[in-house]
Amino acid sequence: MTARPSSLAIALSCAAALLVPPVAVAGAAQLEEVAQPAGTVGFIVVRENGSGSASAAQSYLDALLTSLAKRAGWPAASGKYFTKRSKAKKFIEETKPSFGFFSFGAYLGMRKANGLTAMGVADANATGGAQYFVISKSAFTLDACKGKTLASNHADDARFVDVVVSGDAFDLADFELVETKRPVQTVKAVINGEAECALIDDAQISTLATIDGGAAVHPVWASEAMPAVIIASFGSAPAEQVDTFAKHLEALCEGDGKGACDAAGLTAPRKVEADAFAAQQAAYDG
Fold first, then answer.
1. Nearest partner of 231 among 270, 285, 176, judged by Cα
2. Angle between helices 7-17 and 85-95 (to 10 degrees)
3. Check whether domain 7-127+227-285 has CATH 3.40.190.10, yes or no
4. DSSP result, 31-78
């Protein structure tokens, strides 16, 4: 091939180097030319607004997929970690993964376009997305926040917030929205008086005690609990791969996979019925 490899091809080739024997690689300079083993099963992770390092999360994913491939009898499994749906979309189009790990909003938002079917759920310690809260320093009820400034880094998908997170308790349009980019920035907006209230998740509320001024902030509303991680198959996934993954899904964090799950905070993967989230899907789809 004479064309210069794309940055995506280089990244995938580097990941493949973790999954093939060292004898297949002649040197670091040749990593970009190493092809994925035939039969490699593709994965993607889309964890929106997750805390922690994306590069660390990628290393945990690589280790977990290496363990899964061994357990499932696949030649290899590889995947990529994303924090934005927009960036994940290009990867999906180019690599056509079979499976994914999604935050709940990402799953609902990407489900129809990709033919996603829920296979399981998992807990994710301290990574957020399992419950949402409205917090304030001055207000003591949700109604007292309405019409006031509301900071949030969870407002990218207003539909998810309005029809799933809020449970019809509010719409983002009920507030003067102050969009933030980072989890801690959202909390500090309330502490510093830049916003009257804020919409945060369980990971953010757990950090209040560690942030200067956080003790003065309190929740005025809490959502219902929801799955932190949805494990799903893509519509294009071969049936044989789906059946094999289903057999090993609940053992993801056992054996060689335990260390990667522990490091990533992933716990208790368990199967669900394909229609487990039918109500939320119907609400989101309108």
1. 270
2. 80
3. yes
4. GGGPPPPTTPEEEEEE-TT--S-HHHHHHHHHHHHHHHHHHHT-S-EE
Domain limits of the chain? 7-127+227-285, 132-222
pTM of the predicted protein model: 0.85
pLDDT tens sequence for the chain (286 residues): 444 444 333 333 333 333 333 333 333 333 333 456 789 999 999 999 766 677 888 999 999 999 999 999 999 999 999 999 999 999 999 999 999 999 999 999 999 999 999 999 999 987 789 999 999 999 999 999 999 999 999 999 999 999 999 999 999 999 999 999 999 999 999 999 999 999 999 999 999 999 999 999 999 999 999 999 999 999 999 999 999 999 999 999 999 999 999 988 899 999 999 999 999 999 999 9
User: In the 8-state DSSP scheme, what is residue 223?
Assistant: P
124: left (phi over 0), alpha (psi -120 to 50) or beta: beta
CATH fold match for the domains 7-127+227-285 and 132-222: yes
Q: Can you tell me the distance from the alpha carbon of 158 to that of 136, in angstroms, rounded to the nearest whole number?
A: 20
Closest alpha carbon to 97 in 231, 232, 237: 237
In CATH, which of 3.40.190.10, 3.40.50.1860, 3.30.360.10, 3.30.830.10 is domain 132-222? Answer: 3.40.190.10
Tell me, what amino acid is at 6?
S
Copy the structure tokens of residue 230.
């949805």
d(CA 7, CA 190): 40
- Find the helix or strand (DSSP H, E) in which 201 lies: strand 197-201
Our CA dihedral for 264, 269, 275, 276, rounded to 10 degrees, sits at -90
